[in-house]
Each structure stands twice: as structure tokens, then as C-alpha cells.
Amino acid sequence: MAKARLTFPIGLLMSVAFLNTACGDKNAAQQGAGPKAIPVELKTLETTTVIDSNEFVGNLVATKFVQLAPKIDGRILKIYASWGQRVNAGDPVLLLEPTQQQENVNAAVGNLNIQRANFQASESNLRTAEAERDAARSFVASQQANVATAIANLANSQEVLKTREADLKKAQANLNLTEVNFKRSNFLVETGVQPQQDLDNRTTELKDAQASTEAALKTVQAAKATVAANQGSVQASKASLQQAKENLQAAEQRVNSAKASISSQQGAIEQARGQLGATSQELIYNRVVAPVSGVVGDIPLQIGDFVRTGESFTTITNNTEFELDINVPVERYQDLRIGLPVEIIRSDGREGEVGRISFISPTTNSNAQSVLAKVIFKNDGTLRNNQYVRARIIWDQQPGFLIPTTAVTSIGAQRFVFVARPKTADAEPKGNQSPSPEQSPGSANNLVARQIPVVLGGIQGQSYQVVSGVTAGERIAVSRILELRDGVAIEPASLTQSKPPDAKLKSSL
Questions:
Q1: Which of 173, 210, 409, 463 is the least crowded, having the fewest Cβ atoms under 10 Å away?
Q2: The dihedral formed by the CA atoms of 122, 125, 129 and 130, expressed in degrees to the nearest 10
């Protein structure tokens, strides 16, 4: 109905507005007061969550859906379940006539005594291998002790070497000092400053320092030889330890081999029972059971019908979880990511179950130029297998504003809303004329409707997303939109509702 009014020619609308304004001014002049304010409902814009999303259509497929088929051929003896029945995993569905004979058990009995004798021989071999393994473990322990001793000796010799090297450095420093003193004394004696006795003393000191340095050097070399010998001892001990470990590993392998042989003989002993178990297993296959919990589909069979291996005869569907395939245009491929929320849209437009993207195809569909994404949904009780649904991928959520769709008008391609603004100074009474109670600056209905152009985004629920035009805190009209025009006086609808009945009647007249 609003669209029908907006299709009137703009010139005609302006003419009607001019006439209404003229008539209103005339009546106001006669009555000594301005036109009555139009009561409208006002909505204060508040920051909310604006959603960037795209809508898709897809087919829900239960993640737990199986087609039942027997593992053997057989004739049906009994049908346990019926169409639409809920079953648990392991519950029987069909019973088939046995097709295996039990004579295989007799073949196992003849071999039983032979396999027992082989088993006893394997046990004897195991005891021998375990004794060898224990001896190898003891030898490994002794070699580990030898390695530890060799490492300790090496550490001690290295400490001694450090001490000897420190002594050598001191001796060399002392030698350097005595050489300097000798040269100085030699110069002073030659120049006659000091007597020959001082030079003789310096010579003796120099020889002593040289001897001490040579002795320290020899002790360092001896310490290095000891370190090298200890290093060789460590290497030899480690080599012996490694050989002992290898011998232990070989012994353990022989033990494991003996144990494996025992296990093999135990399996051979159980062969006869296993052949009997083969018939029992066939009997188990005669019972077709539900592999998952769910609802049984149609069973188009009767008792006495013959079924073959691998021939599907019904389905079991579990609707607790669904998978939805969505083909996303390649333009938005970069926005796809695992865990992105996807929301089902119900038939009435309300928000439904929220799932998450669990898979993104690494390849692009060359024909559709789209990328396959899979979404997992939990069933809220309203979803069914193979159901077509509308779903939207929520790319991003940011703070923004929402305006009810009922508050928006259009002129051509431009959208508008009416915002409640205080009356401007030029709209107030002039001269000595006193303002009426409705025009008092402090009154709640001292408001006019301003037609503001807005830029809108997509529809979210029953509201438009606002791109620009209005800001938080502004109040917009959400009722009687078709009666408003730019500059018309308005008042909150709640004020009108609070007036006495006679005042309401008077204002309506």
C-alpha cells in the first residue's frame, strides 16, 4: 500500500502538501495555535550486531546413514524389525538359515595333540632364551659400570691437566718477567749504572725460570697423555658396552621369537576350536544386526525370501547429525575457513540451527566456478535426512545499526527515514506571542519529523542494515509513516496514550 502512494507524481504530491500546509496555517491562524502534532512510535537507534552473510540452498544428509546387506547368502527365518522402528546399534534385524556345516570342528581335533607337543618344545626354547637374556643384562650392567669409571677417570685427568696448564702459564709469565729483568740489568751493567753482581743474579733467575717452564711443560704433556689414555679407555668401555647392548638385544629378540613361537603354537592348539568358531561365526553372520542406532527404513521382504551377499534390503537413518554441501562462489573462496558459522533459515524466516564448516575442498568446480564446503549440523528436532534447506554463511559480525523495514520509505531509488528532531528557532513563536504548551522548548512533544536520506545494506530479519545517514542515539519514526512529511510536528505515541479520554477525542476532532 505504501508503494502505491509513492508512485504518485512528485508534482502532485508537492501540490497536495502545499494545499495542506496552507489550510493548516489558515486554521492555525483562526485558532491561534499551530497544527496538532502527529503521535508516532519512536525507536532509538542503538548499536547492535550487523551480519555479513550469503544465503545458499542445499540438501541435508545424515552422517549416520547405512544400507543394510547380509554377509552371506541365506533364506530368511525371522524378521525382527519393521519399517519406522527405532533400533540401537547391535540390535538384530534379520535371521538367515545357516549355510555352513559344523564338520570343520572334527578336523581341528586330530591336530590338537601334535600342536600341544610343539607348544611344549617352544616353552623349553623360551626358558633357554630368557636365561641368555638375563646373562646379557648382567654383562651390560657391568660394562655400564666400567664406562662410568672410565668417564670419572677422564674427568679427574682433565682437571689435573687444567691445573698443570695453569702452572705452565704461571711459569711462562714468570719467564717473561725474568727475561725483561735480565735485559734491563744487562743494559744497566753495560752502561755502568749497576754492578756485574746484579746481572749475575738476573742470569740465575732467568735460568731458574726457564727450568721451571720446561718442567711445567713436561707435566702438561704428561697430563695430556693421561687424558688421551683415559679418553681411549672411555671409548673402549663404550664400545664394550655397545657390544653388550647388541648382545642383549639379540638375546631379547630370541626371547621374543620364542614367545612368538609359543603364541603360534597356542594358535595352532586353538585351530580346532577356531574351525568350530568358523561355523559359529557363520551363525553370527546369519544374524544381520544394526551397525548404528537409528530408524529402520522399508523392508520389502518376507519370511522365506532368499537374499544374497551384499544385496541391500533396508536402511537405518540416524538424524542426530547432518552434513550440508554448499557450493561457494570462487569470489568468496578467500573468506572461507574451517569453523565458520552457518545458520539454517526456517521456512518462516526465523533463525534455525547453527553449524560449522568442517571441510573446504582444495579444488574448484570448473563448470560452476565454485568451491565445495561441508557443514555439520546438530538436529534440533525439526530436521530430516535429504531435506532441502536454506542456509546462510555468516562471514563477519560487526557493530552497526538496524532499522525496521516498516520505517523506510522510498522515492525512486533513494531510501528515507523520518528522524525526530527538536524544532528550530525559526519555527518558534515570534514577537510578544507566548508559546503554546505544545511549543514550549522543554515539552516532550516539541519535535518535528525530518526526512533523512539513508544508505541501506542487506535485510537482517525484519530490519535493514544501515550503511550511512543516521547515527546512534537518534530516534526514528516506526509508525504512521505515510502520514508524515518533512517538518511536520510529531510527538511520541506514549504521550497521546497518557492523555485523558476527552483530550484524545478533542484532538481527533
A1: 173
A2: 70
Give residue limits of the domains in the chain: 2-47+401-508, 52-68+312-400, 74-99+286-307, 104-273
Return the exposure string of 176-195: e unless at least 16 CB atoms fall within 10 Å of the residue's CB, then b: eebeebbeebeeebeeeebe
Please report which residue ranges of 415-492 form alpha helices under DSSP H: none
Residue range 74-99+286-307 forms a domain whose CATH class is mainly beta
CATH class of 104-273: mainly alpha
The C-alpha cell that represents 507 in the structure block: 484532538
Distance CA 203, CA 214 (A): 17
Give the pLDDT means over successive 10-residue stretches in the chain (509 positions).
36 40 44 71 85 82 89 87 90 78 47 75 86 88 89 90 89 89 87 84 88 89 88 87 88 86 80 65 77 91 89 90 89 88 81 87 87 89 85 82 87 91 58 40 69 85 83 89 90 56 32
Angle between helices 104-190 and 271-285 (to 10 degrees): 110
Task: Please tell me the distance from the alpha carbon of residue 452 to that of residue 414, in angstroms, as a whole number.
Answer: 10
- Give how far Cα 453 sits from Cα of 149, 339, 412, 417, 475, Å: 93, 38, 12, 7, 15
> Whole-angstrom Cα distance, residue 156 to residue 233?
13
Task: Provide the β-strand partners of residue 119.
Answer: none
Distance CA 194, CA 69 (A): 121
Q: Indicate the SS3 state at residue 298.
A: coil
Q: How far is CA 158 from CA 28, 234, 491, in A?
A: 115, 13, 99
Q: Is 449 exposed, middle or buried (0-12, 13-18, 19+ CB in 10 A)?
A: buried
Rounded to whole angstroms, the Cα distance separating 196 from 198 reads 5
Q: Which residues of 268-283 are buried (b: 16+ CB within 10 A; e: fewer)?
A: bbebbebbbbebeebb
d(CA 62, CA 348): 23
**Residue 370 parent element (H or E):** strand 370-378
Cell of 491: 510527538
Query: In Å, what is the CA distance from 109 to each residue of 89, 157, 279, 343?
Result: 36, 72, 15, 64
Cell 525370501: give the residue. 305
**Is the overall model pTM greater than 0.70, yes or no?**
no
51 within 8 A of 397, measured Cβ to Cβ: yes
Looking at CATH, the fold of the domain delimited by 52-68+312-400 is given as Elongation Factor Tu (Ef-tu); domain 3 (2.40.30)
Judge contact between 492 and 39, C-beta under 8 A.
yes
What span, in angstroms and rounded, lies between the C-alpha atoms of 305 and 186?
128
DSSP code of 407? Answer: G
